[in-house]
Design brief:
Strand content of chain B: under 5%
Radius of gyration of chain A: 24 Å
Radius of gyration of chain B: 21 Å
Shape of chain A: globular
Strand content of chain A: 15-25%
Largest sheet of chain B: none
Number of helices of chain B: 14
Strand order of the largest sheet of chain A: 6-7-8-3-9-10
Shape of chain B: globular
Oligomer: heterodimer
Distance between the termini of chain A: 27 Å
Helix content of chain A: 25-40%
Distance between the termini of chain B: 21 Å
Helix content of chain B: over 70%
Structural class of chain B: mainly alpha
Chain lengths: 536, 359
């Protein structure tokens, strides 16, 4: 913020970019198929220089496909792309980069034990390298855009937000004409999101076009000049005045009415203020006995780093406690210990009066602990196996006689559970990988919630990557479990989700509980500060 | 990262119908190339083929020898498939056969079993062979569970240990070497007592197929049922696809690793027992040479199908017998048969790659 942008910045008009200029990038009737799936169908799109153009859509709407076409990862089956008035047919990301198109992917591609400047130089230069001059360029660039970045810091020492800045700098140092960011805010703190949007604005003001892919409406309100909405691979709406037309955009995105949306889901999307949703959840009576008591849980990893430090928490029956925090601050370790996957270095866990600290996953399941793991594909399910097998993976004994699997009983039970939890699939015997993310998560949830006596439900990032309908269903099932008396621990990096669903929130920072507060929208700023490590 | 893992083609696990056609085509193509090579060597192709056929199906004895060979391949191959369900690669068939043979010989010679009734005279040595192989496989499992040692490395290196253990056993008079009567006494064991030799199916030495054949058929059927129909088979599969998710669901990874590698080892040991008690009767250095690896290839080619293992084991068994005869009669080196076998593997692996890639 200290120095002005290098190129004379145009005054931002607040609504549209200059309508007279020719589009920087123009997509005409672009279609992309993967096998029988039409990922993008007859999509047309103009990106103007100097604008922040948001692509809005749910998961599976075709946003990432669109990005990958622009960046040359995929080749369109039909339609044409024109860049700066000329036919644009990239045969790979290197073509895109050479044409002046840069992209920040959802998943970072950084070499962890190298420095920031080395990571930036990678792929930019061959032969001899003058690290110092690059570092100076980097420093200048960062200051021009109003953020700090130590060129000699190692990536592994940086926070997620800082790592993303490295990715952004990697792109900006190429001085691109078109800058694409695919879901860049999913991993960021509220403050960092604001800073990122400011950077996007500055980049656009320098005359570069910014394509921002998102499913969060709050970001559109703040940053977008224009919006294109995708649904089912088709462009279903465009808006030149997105801030005024949010409701219409949501309707287009989810093909339904905002009012019919689950309140919590709506607040996570940013359609309504979180307060409205929080009011919808009934505050619990103060619990008489503790269902779950976690006492001084500490995890020290093999390198001697303390990942979780003296975590103490009690949860009453029917209570939902949220764990807030930026990812990588001990949430994964907490979930791993509570689900019996790793043993804690210190501390004890009680379920009612029974100590469960040393129990195996199998014993925990028997004791009534349901776990919706953070990483669905790595821990929650086995995608190569059938839906039915996955839904009863932890209870195969119930479908066994003399060692043989009672296949028909298993399939019948799975079919019943699929109906109850609205898991949509061609049948119980199709491969789990054939299900959409939302249906996969519903299936995992069904398995864990229907444990014979569920006392404790641990849900880690249960709505990550799900579309709005599935998000609402997940919340409803979690609430139902809680109404039946289960204690729920909800770990999420989405603050809005926690405020909407949880009764109270604890904030994790570097493995320690920074503070404890009510799940109330008025606490938002305080929670944000604690997530960033400031003591309450 | 998960994406990469989940989208990797798992073509080694399934046996789609076209692959049967491709397998046969690969075998024919490799055979044809073998004929071309024989021609290029300047050997009369018809002589070589005649010798080959003579060696495989020319006499009842040749057929029986081929079948006996196939039995060992099949057992090792079935063990490979079982371990492979848990995504483990057992390349230790060679060593498991060796320890099985050692144990069978030791018990048959010095276990005082020859007087026992009801076939116990040979059943106990067979059991000893099975247990020895099982323990050998379990060592690899324990190393994997306790120290994370890759089973490819541990089973392979355990094979070297077993092969040299065999050498030691037949070289040292303290162990299994027959009493030294002169400097010409060969480094081998005594011949096992007649009572401990496996009964032949026909009772006739001109067609010496032993009871290992029906036993192997039963084992194959049981293995196929266990893998396809039982909860154990399902759990093995779960562990093989995703050990973390499986253990979260309460399936013990360690238990599955131990059971599957022990089973693979036991079948290898049993194969060694059959070879020793059914055909060779005398423990010699290098008696297991090549059997473990041919069995491994049979398991690998079968791509998870027990029926496929049997087919591949029979193919290799007959190929080897024919090759040996071809060398003796038509002066075509046996190495040619190994070249053909290698060609089959490469062709099938290549075909599997292309099948796996097809959307």
């Amino acid at each position: 913020m200290l120095s002005p942008p290098p190129v004379a910045a145009r005054e931002k008009t607040g609504t549209t970019a200059e309508p007279l200029t020719e589009p920087l990038l123009a997509l005409q009737g672009v279609t992309k198929r993967f096998g029988s799936l039409v990922a993008l169908s007859d999509a047309s799109l103009d990106i103007m220089p100097g604008e922040v153009h948001c692509i809005l859509g749910e998961n599976g709407a075709g946003k990432s496909t669109l990005c990958n076409l622009i960046f040359g990862v995929h080749v369109p089956d039909q339609g044409t792309m024109r860049f700066r008035g000329e036919r644009y047919q990239p045969s790979g990301p290197s073509d895109a980069l050479a044409s002046g198109i840069a992209m920040v992917h959802q998943h970072f591609s950084l070499v962890h034990d190298m420095t920031v400047v080395d990571n930036v130089i990678l792929g930019l230069q061959r032969g001899f390298v003058n690290t110092r001059s690059w570092a100076q360029r980097l420093d200048r660039l960062a200051r021009d855009y109003g953020f700090a970045l130590d060129p000699y810091a190692k990536i592994e020492d940086l926070s997620v937000g800082e790592r993303q800045r490295v990715e952004i700098v990697k792109c900006l140092i190429r001085e691109p004409r078109l800058f694409v960011l695919d879901e860049p805010t999913a991993v960021l703190l509220p403050d960092e999101i604001a800073a990122l949007l400011a950077v996007c604005r500055r980049v656009a003001d320098n005359g570069c076009a910014v394509v921002l892919v998102t499913h969060k409406l709050a970001e559109i309100k703040k940053a977008a000049d224009r919006v294109t909405v995708l649904r089912g691979g088709q462009v279903v709406a465009r808006s030149d005045h997105p801030a005024q037309e949010i409701d219409a955009l949501v309707r287009a995105m989810i093909q339904g009415d905002v009012k019919s949306l689950d309140k919590s889901a709506a607040s996570v999307l940013g359609v309504v203020e979180a307060g409205a949703a929080a009011a919808a959840t009934t505050p619990p009576e103060s619990p008489a006995t503790e269902a779950v008591q976690i006492d001084g849980l500490t995890v020290i990893d093999s390198q001697g780093v303390t990942r979780l430090d003296n975590f103490t928490l009690s949860i009453g029956p029917g209570e939902i406690v949220g764990v807030a925090g930026v990812e990588g601050n001990g949430q994964s370790e907490l979930a791993a210990v509570l689900s019996g996957m790793t043993a804690p270095s210190r501390g004890r866990i009680f379920l009612g009066d029974i100590e469960t600290t040393q129990l195996s996953p199998k014993q925990l399941t028997a004791a009534g602990v349901g776990v919706v793991p953070e990483d669905r594909h790595a821990v929650g399910c086995i995608v190569e196996m059938s839906v039915a097998e996955n839904m009863f993976l932890n209870r195969l004994e119930d479908f066994t006689s003399q060692g043989f699997l009672r296949h028909r009983a298993l399939v019948a039970a799975a079919r019943e559970l699929m109906t109850r939890f609205d898991v949509r699939a061609a049948g119980p015997e199709v491969a789990f990988s054939a299900l959409s993310g939302g249906n996969q998560q519903k299936a995992v949830l069904a398995r864990e919630i229907t444990l014979p006596k569920l006392l404790f439900l641990l849900a880690a990032q249960p709505t990550r990557g799900l579309d709005v309908g599935a998000v609402a269903a997940v919340y409803n099932h979690i609430r139902a479990a809680c109404r039946r008396g289960a204690a729920v621990l909800l770990i999420s990096s989405e603050l809005d989700e926690l405020i909407a669903v949880a009764d109270r929130i604890v904030v994790l920072y570097r493995g320690r509980i920074m503070g404890n507060c009510a799940a109330n929208p008025s606490e938002r700023e305080r929670i944000g500060a604690m997530m960033a490590g400031q003591a309450a | 990262m998960t994406d990469v893992a989940t989208h990797k083609p798992r073509s080694w696990r399934v046996m789609p119908a076209p692959s049967v056609v491709i397998s046969i085509a690969a075998v024919l193509a490799a055979g044809l190339l073998g004929v071309v090579l024989i021609f290029a060597m300047g050997v009369s192709v018809s002589d070589a083929l005649a010798a080959f056929i003579q060696g495989t199906v020319g006499t009842p004895y040749a057929i029986a020898a081929s079948i006996n060979r196939s039995i060992a391949f099949a057992l090792v191959g079935i063990g490979f498939v079982i371990a492979n369900r848990a995504n483990l690669v057992n390349v230790g068939g060679e060593g498991q056969i060796a320890v099985g043979g050692i144990a069978a010989t030791a018990v048959a010679l010095y276990g005082h079993v020859e007087g026992l009734p009801a076939g116990l005279a040979f059943l106990i040595p067979l059991l000893a062979a099975t247990v020895a192989g099982m323990l050998w496989g379990s060592i690899a499992a324990a190393l994997k569970i306790k120290a994370g040692t890759n089973e490819v490395i541990s089973t392979l290196l355990l094979s070297f240990i077993a092969v040299w253990l065999l050498y030691w056993c037949v070289q040292s008079p303290v162990l299994l070497r027959k009493p030294m009567t002169s400097s010409a006494t060969l480094p081998e064991s005594l011949e096992i007592p007649d009572a401990t030799k496996l009964p032949l199916l026909t009772g006739d030495y001109s067609f010496p197929v032993h009871i290992g054949l029906p036993a192997t058929v039963v084992i194959a059927i049981v293995a196929a049922i266990v893998l396809a129909k039982t909860v154990f088979g399902l759990r093995l599969r779960a562990v093989g696809f995703n050990p973390i998710a499986a253990s979260r669901a309460g399936i013990s990874y360690s238990r599955m690793v131990l059971l599957s590698l022990a089973a693979a080892g036991a079948l290898g040991g049993l194969a060694g027992g059959f070879m020793l008690l059914g055909e060779q009767y005398v423990l010699k250095d290098g008696f297991s040479s090549g059997y473990g690896f041919d069995g491994l290839v049979a398991g690998l080619l079968a791509r998870g199908s027990i029926v496929g293992v049997i087919a591949a084991a029979l193919l290799f068994g007959f190929l080897r017998s024919g090759g040996i005869n071809m060398e003796m009669v038509a002066a075509v080196p046996t190495a040619l048969v190994m070249v053909i076998q290698g060609l089959i593997v490469v062709t099938l692996a290549g075909a599997a790659y292309f099948i796996g890639r097809r959307p």
